Amino acid sequence: MPGVSAAVGVVPGSLPPLRRRVLEELREPASAVTLAARLGESRQRVNYHVRALERGGLVELVEERRRRGCTERIVRATARAVVVDPDAVGDLDTVARTQDRFAADALLAQAARTVSSVAGMRERAEAQGRRLVTFAIEADVAFGRPEDIERFADALAGRVAELAAEFDTEGGRRYRVVAGGHPAPRTVEET
Fold it and tell me: What CATH number has the domain bearing residue 46?
């Protein structure tokens, strides 16, 4: 399994719904008993999922407390975000190639490959005492009409191709440039 960083955990498989809920709740340290009460589930069932997350490196032990003759384990999530390894969710590459670039699966496949690749390269760089040089660009754009999205994507693709041709140097260090777009999450004011 790929390593888990303090920011993002990459897991080889999809998380069942209850396990996802447990992981979300464990942003703050808690015990299986506390989680069970919050989630309306049995302690045994929640504990089963906590232990599975712990084995996967997504949950860590914070402390153990003696309580009524038992040991209560307080745990917390080790990652703020969890991304499923792209190999585990099936062949998103084929889905992305058979659909247009506006399909959600194309964006998911691209994002999953990016997270998996960058996380692995960062771990290798850190193990060698080096820094992985990357860059990210993000912008929010308010499109007036749905057809503007396609026009924007076409213009962006053209400009990226021009820049790639301008800066592409034979024998240089190759970089993969990824661009995608999705609806921005609504803010409190917009809901």
Answer: 1.10.10.10
Structure confidence by residue, pLDDT tens digits, 113-148:
788 788 888 888 988 999 999 999 999 999 999 999
List of residues 6+ apart from 108 with CB closer than 8 A: 92, 96
3-class secondary-structure state, position 50: helix
Q: Determine contact, residues 76/59, Cβ cutoff 8 Å.
A: yes
Domain boundary among 54, 82, 110: 82
Instruction: Please tell me whether residues 119 and 131 are part of one structural domain.
Output: yes
- Cα–Cα dist 112/84, whole Å: 7
Task: Pick the last residue of a domain from 62, 82, 102.
Answer: 82
What are the DSSP calls for 103-161, one per residue? Answer: SHHHHHHHHHHHHHHHHHHHHHHHHTT--------------SSHHHHHHHHHHHHHHHH
Q: 163 and 125, same structural domain?
A: yes
pTM recorded for the entire structure: 0.52
Is 184 among the domain residues?
A: yes
